[in-house]
Amino acid sequence: MELIDEIMMHITDYCNDPEAVSNALYVCLQGYSITKKTTELAEYIPETNELLIKKFLVAKKIKGCTPRTLHFYNASVTKTLERIGKNVIDIQTDDIRLYIALRIRDGVSAVTIGNEKRALSSFLTFCHNEDIIHKNPMLPIDTMKQKKTKKTAFKDEEIIMMRDLLETSRERAIFELLLSTGCRVSELVGIRLDDIQPDGSIVVHGKGQKDRYVYLNAAAKIAFEKYMADRKDNSLWLFPRCVPVKFHKGVKKDEMKLWFTKPEMVVEDQAADKGTIEQIVRSLGRKCGVKAYPHKFRRTCATNALKNGMPVEMVSKMLGHDNIGTTQIYLDINDDDMAAMHKRYVR
Q1: Structural domain containing residue 59
Q2: What is the pLDDT of residues 167-208, one digit of tens each?
Q3: Tens digits of per-residue pLDDT, 208-243?
Q4: How far is CA 260 from the centre of its chain?
Q5: Cα 185 from Cα 295, distance rounded (Å)
Q6: How far apart are CA 123 and CA 141, in angstroms?
Q7: Which pLDDT belongs to residue 38?
């Protein structure tokens, strides 16, 4: 808005946080007619947006996006357009700025807003390329700065503490495979028995429908073999799903821990979902006072591999990253590590 730009010119020298003031002004002035626009907005018709979203999703599917990515685009773009409350052809840059300002006011994280912006930008770019809109209102929107927080890997003692609390061969197999392979949790639950090669390597199906090989260390091999020996079912999934709770009647709590050893408790044609693995890992961490979640195993695997001498290019390939820059985000290298590496390599 020109008015806001003019106000900002006068107050910038007196304000420590111009961006916060700008956002506040957008929120405060949302109920006022302060522009020179004379044309009336068309009636908001949600069905029009829904049709365009469907066309957008079809284009993304043809491009090769996974069902998970399509679901994200659908949910994010739909919610964003509902909040903006306009037909796509009527959305202006200031509408998007106001939307972002309102989300910031409501305490939504910069990461979430950034994800919403990326999805909306992709959708509006599609609409522009298809000549549905003559100008992309997202182009003038600046990228939001996100606070970078350092994420850590598990410490050696934390891994030992969690190992001591593993109760079943299934839990140990999940734990050791995550730690050895650096798999995403979605990749872990997607492993089928025919993905496991004779040499012990495993084909995992990563993001963007990209397959890669991952490998088991000694601890993971032992845990895998023990887990498979305990199973009696015929499921082709490495980690199949348990039957629904309503079928647990008559089974004691202690016996439920070993449900995967009872064929009647296994849903053979379905894999465990990500939430199940998340729950196992987080519960394990709570028992020993460790902040644990599946993705932290991925960071730990990458960090340990690098510390033990694996070239960063190979770490990147192991994780299934397209570029090393992404891999470097995962690495937890502290000052002590840097000092040790400098002493070892810099003469």
Answers
A1: 39-129
A2: 999 999 999 999 999 999 999 999 999 999 988 899 998 877
A3: 778 999 999 999 999 999 999 999 999 999 999 999
A4: 28
A5: 7
A6: 15
A7: 46
Q: Return the CATH number at 318.
A: 1.10.443.10
Rounded Cα distance, 123 and 77, in Å? 7
Radius of gyration of the chain (CA): 26
Q: Residue 294, CB half-sphere, CA atoms under 13 Å: how many? A: 20
The sign of the dihedral angle between the CA atoms of 224, 227, 229, 235 is negative
Are 231 and 261 in contact, with CB atoms under 8 Å apart? yes
Residues 161 and 104 placed together within one structural domain of the fold? no
Q: How far apart are CA 227 and CA 151, in angstroms?
A: 31
Residues 117 and 168 in one domain: no
Q: Mind giving me the DSSP string for 301-332?
A: HHHHHHHTT--HHHHHHHHT-SSHHHHHHH--
Q: What is the pLDDT of residues 66-108, one digit of tens each?
A: 888 899 999 999 999 999 999 999 999 999 999 999 999 999 9
Q: Which two tokens stand for residue 38?
A: 């004379």
Q: How far apart are CA 15 and CA 21, in angstroms?
A: 8
pLDDT tens string 14-55: 556 667 767 766 766 666 665 555 444 456 666 788 999 999
Boundary (domain end) residue, out of 129, 148, 175: 129
Decide: helix, strand or coil at residue 203: strand
Exposed e or buried b for every residue in 244-271, given b needs 16+ CB within 10 A?
eeeeeeeeeeeeeeebbbbeebbbeeeb
State the average pLDDT over residues 102-127.
92
* Whether 185 contacts 294, CB under 8 Å: yes
Average pLDDT, the chain: 84
Establish if 297 belongs to a structural domain: yes
Count other Cβ atoms within 10 Å, centred on residue 339.
10
Tell me which residue of 226, 294, 293, 233 sits closest to 259, measured CA to CA. 233
Looking at residue 178, its pLDDT comes to: 95
> For residue 143, is it within any domain?
no
